[in-house]
Write a structure and sequence with these properties.
Layout (H helix, E strand, L loop, with lengths): L1 H26 L20 E5 L11 E10 L5 E4 L3 E5 L4 E3 L1 E2 L6 E4 L4 E9 L8 E2 L3 E5 L7 E4 L5 E2 L10 E2 L5
Parallel strand pairs: 6-13
Antiparallel strand pairs: 1-2, 2-8, 3-7, 4-5, 4-10, 8-13, 9-12, 10-11
Length: 176
């Protein structure tokens, strides 16, 4: 009985510690505890080097694939990003504005030379699975910015769910 009570107490203590760590991480998300970061201006597109992480982009047809997008601060001042970027996939003719996932819109302070990231998740097209969207580029506008950059799409063809209520292709919020 004592062992069971000790195990329960240790489990509760660990859960409380994890809960406090999660709360603490949310309160300071991306700021690194720097109070000045909350007063930093939003990152302008011209101050960011936006690029795709080319690791693990391809997978088996019909699978959901995450594509990480890095946004490196190339300026000499800290700036902030908060929320979701706008991402439109294009195939040269049609444009598919991607939906946002659920997720916290934490403020991320990006110091000079450092990066923030977000993820584009898509379902790769498989023969017979539906309509194929052959994306050729992604038009990305960082949160809070008004100008975009266009990058060549690094992934495979996408299962076109552009008209779906809950598409399996979407964008996550920016994280540190």
């Amino acid at each position: 009985m004592r062992l069971r009570n000790l195990t329960a107490a240790l489990t509760a203590t660990a859960a409380l510690g994890l809960g406090l760590a999660a709360f603490s991480g949310t309160a300071n998300a991306g700021t690194g505890g720097d109070p000045a970061a909350s007063s930093a201006p939003a990152c302008d597109t011209s101050a960011l080097d936006i690029s795709f992480d080319r690791k693990a982009i391809y997978s088996a047809p019909g699978e959901q694939i995450p594509v990480i997008v890095h946004m490196a601060n190339t300026s000499d001042a800290t700036c902030t990003l908060q929320g979701f970027p706008t991402v439109d996939l294009t195939d040269g003719t049609d444009t598919w504005p991607l939906a946002h996932s659920s997720g916290a819109e934490n403020q991320v302070a990006v110091t000079p030379g450092k990066s923030a990231q977000f993820v584009i998740t898509y379902i790769s097209w498989a023969e017979g699975s539906g309509t194929e969207f052959k994306a050729t580029s992604a038009v990305i506008t960082p949160p809070g910015a008004t100008t975009s950059v266009t990058l060549p799409w690094p992934g495979s063809s996408i299962l076109d769910q552009s008209g779906a209520t809950h598409s399996g292709t979407y964008v996550s919020p920016v994280t540190a």
